[in-house]
Amino acid sequence: MPRFPFVQVDVFTSRPFEGNQLAVFTDAAGLTADQMQAIAREMNFSETTFVIPAADRAPGSAEEHRVRIFTVAEELPFAGHPTLGTAAVLHGISGGNVIWLDLKAGKIPVQFEPPTNGNGTAFGEMRQPDPEFGSIHSRNDVARILGLSPEGIRGDLPIQTVSTGLPFVIVPLSTLRLIQGLHIDFVQAAAYLERTDGKFFYFVSRETVDPQARLHARMIFYNGEDPATGSAAGDCIAWMVAHGVARPGERVLIEQGLEMRRPSQIFVRGDKEGDRIVNIRVGGHTIEVARGELNF
Fold first, then answer.
1. Cα radius of gyration rounded to whole Å, the chain
2. 264-273 and 276-295: which strand pairing?
3. CA-to-CA distance for 247 and 228, rounded, in angstroms?
4. Which of 1, 137, 157, 210 gives the lowest tally of CB atoms within 10 Å of its CB?
């Protein structure tokens, strides 16, 4: 019976049982895409990743780690916390200050800094592709899906689709109370997103629980709620720099996951060159919580 080892980590936190859970299968030799999808459903985390061994990689890719990312329902070209968490696991195995992942969305470097906290958890920062800015959405339309009055969404910041590999619609809500009590009609939300250039919504508030945080965020989707969404955070920092919520080059904190008792800290920054937002970086800690094997 084949055995497939995996490492379970919590990402965007330095404390166990917080942040976003991830299962990393460190040797996916011989697994088909259908099997990977079935395993992701079995693990039942937001995402599960599979590292393709060197023998199964394309010629010339030996310095990179080919990785595939699956939710419980589909394969993704890119996702933030799986990228950071997988790189942290590989960093623990092979060392090195930079781990390169070869994803369907492209090659992503993750830079690691020496541990500065007492438990030695790795702090990694991934460089995401430069952002693409998409549609500006109607405040009335989005408010109707959320069951809010239009005043529940800020009028001084746009509702906008942004993508650094996975397109999110950034929705700036007016108050912390509104984002904490948010309820979504998933049927309406899915129908709306199907007509647009966005894959998911990412809800943010400039009012925060932690005074050190710049934004409070939530991402609610078909598998429930995500405690930390690195891909959306990359889109979000691009949006923040473009619209004056963060200064170019400034590292700021996004807090997420508090409503589901898995607090996460996502550190983001982005630069500006002329009218372009570039050099998007998303970072955080990763801590290992379990190891195991899957047999089937």
1. 19
2. antiparallel
3. 22
4. 1
On the 0-12 / 13-18 / 19+ scale of CB atoms within 10 A, 116 is exposed
- Cα dihedral across residues 92, 93, 95, 101: positive or negative: negative
Catalytic residues, by residue number, are: 47
Structure tokens at 26: 């460190």
Question: What are 202's two structure tokens?
Answer: 């990412």
Q: List, in order of start, the domains of the chain with CATH numbers.
A: 3-127+285-295 (3.10.310.10), 132-282 (3.10.310.10)
The residue type found at 32 is T
- The string of pLDDT tens digits covering residues 89-125 is 999 988 888 999 999 989 999 999 877 666 667 799 9
Q: Which DSSP category does 153 fall into?
A: B
Token match 């619609």: residue?
169
Under 8 Å between Cβ of 214 and 205: no
Output the pLDDT for position 61. Answer: 44
